[in-house]
C-alpha cells in the first residue's frame, strides 16, 4: 500500500524554462545563476542552505536604513527538488527583485514531477496542505517565516491584499482568475539536439 501511495505522490521542482529541464541540485543551478550575475556563497547551517549574492550591478532600489536588507535567493543544499511551493516562490521573487524581469517565468518556472525511486526513497515527505493534490515536500525544507509570508490561501485576509503579504508575480492563488499570463517558448529552446 505504501509503495502505491509513493507512486501517486509528486514533488515540485524548479525548471529552467529555456531548456525545459528540471534543476535538481545546486551544481546545475550555480552556472545559471552565474550568468544572471549571482555568486554562490558557501552553504552553511543545519540543514544546510546555499545563498546567492547579486554582484552584477547595483540594485536600483534604495532602501532606508531602518528597513530589512534586500532579499537573498536561497535554497536548501544539496538537492533543490521536492521543496514547498512557498520556498520556491521566495527564491524566484528574490531573484526577480534584482533582475526586475516583467515575466520571470521566461527564466524559471515550477512544475511537478514524480518522486525518484533512488534519491527520494529514504526521505520524510509532508503533504502540502494548501493544495488538494498529491504534491509533497521534503520535511525540513520550509522555514516558518517563508511560509507565513507566502501562504495566502489560509490567511483571514486572503480575499484582499494584506500589506503583510508580498504577492508573487509568478505564482498565483488558485482562485485568482483576474490575471492571465501566457509565455511562448521557442520550439528550439525546448528540444535539445
Q: Would you give an account of this structure?
A:
This protein is of the alpha+beta class and 193 residues long. The protein contains five helices and eight strands, in the order αββαβββαβββαα. Strands 1, 2, 6, 7 and 8 form a five-stranded mixed sheet that branches. It has a three-stranded antiparallel sheet with strand order 3-4-5. A hairpin with an 8-residue loop joins strand 3 (38-40) and strand 4. Helix 3 (85-99) crosses helix 4. The longest helix has 15 residues, at 85-99. The protein is globular, with a radius of gyration of 17 Å. The N and C termini lie far apart (40 Å). Residues 155-177 have low confidence and may be disordered.
Number of DSSP strand runs: 8
Helix content: 10-25%
What number is the mean pLDDT? Answer: 76
**What is the overall shape?**
globular
Distance between the termini: 40 Å
Low-pLDDT segments, ≥5 res: 155-177
Structure keywords:
single chain; 193 residues; alpha+beta; five-stranded mixed β-sheet
In terms of topology, how is this protein built?
Elements: H1 2-8, E1 10-16, E2 21-23, H2 26-36, E3 38-40, E4 49-54, E5 74-76, H3 85-99, E6 108-114, E7 125-127, E8 135-138, H4 144-150, H5 187-190
Parallel strand pairs: 1-8
Antiparallel strand pairs: 1-2, 1-6, 3-4, 4-5, 7-8
